[in-house]
Each structure stands twice: as C-alpha cells, then as structure tokens.
C-alpha cells in the first residue's frame, strides 16, 4: 500500500454546470497555491504516504533505574508531528516497550521492533546492549540516540549515539571535581556497567593531577545505603563519629541512577555536623526533581556539582521541546523537561526527522530501515539540534578515537551546580572532554 488514491474503476457521469464551476474554482485555487506555496497544514497530511513505524523502549516500574519519560516523550513527539503533516507527509507511529531492566526484556523489545518492521529504534534506554543489538543488526534496524549506558551503543555499526554516554559524564565529572577536591569517593552500582565507572572518573581526575577515587560499590536496587555512605565518608576523612571529622577537601560523588535519592538520604543522616565534604553526581542520577524532593536550597544537594550532556533545563534552546510537551503531552507527569532521558529522546527524534526529510528531498517515498541507515552513514547533511549538541553526523571521519567506544561522535559535556535550590550552569557553554576520553586508561 502506498496510501495514494486509486483511480475510479468507471468514468464519472457528465458534470453539471454547478460541478463545472466548482472544478474551475478548485483549479484556480490550486494554481494560486502552486504560485504562492501551500497553506499551513494543507500539504503533506499524514496518510498521503506510507506510515513510518519506530520503537522507543525503556525500563518502567522496576526496582532499579526507570525511564518512563522516554517513551512518553516519544508519543508526545508523534502527536505533534502528525498534527503538523507528519514526517515529510508520513504519519509517525511510535511503539513503546518496557525492557524491565533485564536481558530477556531487552531482547523481547528488540524482537517486537523486528516483527513490527520498525525503520529505527529511537531515543531509548537499556543496559543490556548484548541482548538488543544483535536482533537489530541482523535485520538492519538502526539504533538512534540511545541513552548511552551500554558498550554496544558505542560499538555497533548500526548505533548512532547523540551524546558521549556514561563515558563522557564520568570523565567530565572527574575533571569538574579535580578543581575542587583533594580526595574523592565514588559510590556506584555493583554491576558490570558500574565496574567501568571508576576508570572513567579517574581519567578525569588524572587530568587535574588528582589521585584515583576510592571505589564504593553498592547494590543497584538497594533500599538502605548506610554502609556505602559510611565507607564513602571515611575514605575522604569524614568518618561518622570521628573526632573533628569534617573532611575538608573531600568529595563524594554518587552515580546510582534512580537510587541516588536513597543514597543521599543515608548520606544526610550520617554526615557529621559541620562536615565540609562536597557532594556531586551526574545528570540522570541527580537532577532538579531530586533537588526539589530533598529540600531545595535547604537540602543536602545545595552546592552539589553535577555533570550533564546538554545545556541546563532553563536554557531557551529547550523551548521548542517544552512547547511540544505543553501542547501534546496533555499533562503527562511522566515527562520532566529537565530529565536527560526526555531530552535525549527529543534530540534522537530530531535526528530521525532530519533523515526522513533528507530522503524526501531525494524523492524516496518508501522509507525503509536500510534507507535510514544508509543516509546516516553517508552523512551528506549534518543534523542541527538547535545548539543542544554539536551538529551531528556519523561518518568514519567523525568518530572520536575513544578506546572501547569507537562510535562516539560527541565529546561535549556541561558543568552544572545547585545554587539556591536550582540547577544552574557552573561554567558557561560546553566543555570538550574528547582528549580526556581519547587518553589511554588504566584500572589504577
């Protein structure tokens, strides 16, 4: 099916005078529109061309990290583009899937994308790259703008990351802390993904001639982090109950995803009175919502240092996304404009839109996964994200020389801090951690 109207199987009867007049008026209007350009909303209405099916997946209602805002943002995006003519006249159909934070769920979501003949998986989150990437590769389905928590997102030839993933956040956080911390404790999940975090953070610390962080492993789905908080404080010289334990020059950075909230609750209770230990995290583990829940300017996150991929949520470059959320999310409280998962989904769909428009300009009416992949690989046009990232393309010459993460094309991060209960830019503009990422790393 192409969506084009079929010719009538029999000729129309002779037109009446009135019908002839209507036809003449219609022809005149068509001539006027062709000369002046079509009226908004009259051309490229969804349904004139084949609909495009994509998938967005993320963990929802699990005991570990959840990202419900990502599929919710994808659905709001689809309502928006379909209300304005679709993607180059193609209606956008977004399928969503809960990967449940396990390998079986991730594989099931990938198979659903295959069965639905999706042209891409867009703006998704899953730790289980080994489970989802193989089905996508076998069927040639590109993975656009994943959150960046699995190695496969930065290794598979069908993956097109829009940020530097966990690697850039941790290396950037290390560089950010190196200027203010003499000793650092890293509290991170005791998982395969967590095992990479100390090396990445230490690479950033080494840029500032600081010693490696003390590695504090903690359960990914813990409900009590008192033990981890004690170990982290002790390592920076602020042991709970210790004489004169203030920990000046010490920093504790926590990257426990959704459980970072629970950790800081334990930290706040165990932190010695008068403690001078600074705290830190990365966007995704902490953000404005967590600052608000923990007391704002009077809470434990006041003064915290955070590293993110994108400009702060109050930056006007996010206004187009906010308008889509306001107009088409219908009050969906899963969508937080300050959530980096929601932001990554917006950017990933911006990439998809650019690709579909480019294919339309080439006269390609039948959009396939292979066509999307080839367009991304060819990189004739860099994707402009409105300044939320550098212009993106994924040609071989655009890949950064990052050990273990060869598909990385964006090595920029932002430094943020909590001041008066609000996340603000701690340094204007982006910070390029490309050289830090490209430097050979050791586990020491």
UniProtKB/TrEMBL annotation:
Pfam families for this protein: Peripla_BP_6
Keywords: Signal
Name under which the protein is recorded: Leucine-binding protein domain-containing protein
Repressor recorded as keyword: no
SUPFAM superfamilies tied to this protein: Periplasmic binding protein-like I (SSF53822)
Residue intervals of the Leucine-binding protein domain: 64-384
Source organism: Streptomyces rimosus subsp. rimosus
Keyword check for Transcription: no
Signal peptide as annotated in the record: 1-30
Family named by the database record: Belongs to the leucine-binding protein family.
InterPro entries reported for this sequence: Leu-bd (IPR028081), Peripla_BP_I (IPR028082)
